[in-house]
Amino acid sequence: TVRVPGLGGEAMLLARPDACAHLEVTGACPRLPGEALLADADLAYTDLQIGDRVALEGLPTVLIVGSYSVPEDQAGYWFDPSRLVGHAPRAGPPEVPYQPAPLVVAESAFESVPSGAWLVRMDRPLQLEPDATPADLAQAVRTATAAGRGPQQLPDGVWDGSSLNDLPALAGEI
User: Are 46 and 1 in contact (CB under 8 A)?
Assistant: First the structure.
């Protein structure tokens, strides 16, 4: 994903393999860099139409080729479907700018985004097997703790493991 000023707020580009197969799409699926889907609600909120071009700060203009919504039966594919919902602006304090849902783009769209301007989000649900042992839990805690040690410089970017879950605290309650 990459976040940039655009659409009157903070816009985010999102690419995922076969995304359109897991969305309800009106119009076309983006196939080329510079094409995007805009969430149905954001299309209405911004008064944009399919076929309009959108300026995003620091990136090439994007052509809206369609709109999307997330069908309920596809929620599992998206891990957290609430991430594909826009948020209207809110007066402060603190003031919150308009945050449209992500513009869904082809993976090739990221070829023109400078290194360091985007991030890769990897979600993984915790899966506990019925025959898991205390040793398995201890190993999962070590792995989760190692992933969340903070930013680490890599040759092509920065790794920053973060978690919405607190597995060590959860393990302490077991």
Answer: no
pTM score, whole prediction = 0.74
Contact 117, 2 (CB under 8 A): yes
Structure tokens at 171: 């393990």
Rounded-to-integer distance, Cα 36 and Cα 2, Å: 13
pLDDT tens for residues 103-124? 999 998 888 777 666 666 666 6
Residues in the chain: 174
The owner of tokens 């809110």 is 90
Q: How far is Cα 152 from Cα 71, in angstroms, rounded to an integer?
A: 37
Whose CA is closest to 117, among 153, 150, 158, 146? 158
Beta bridge partners of 54: 62
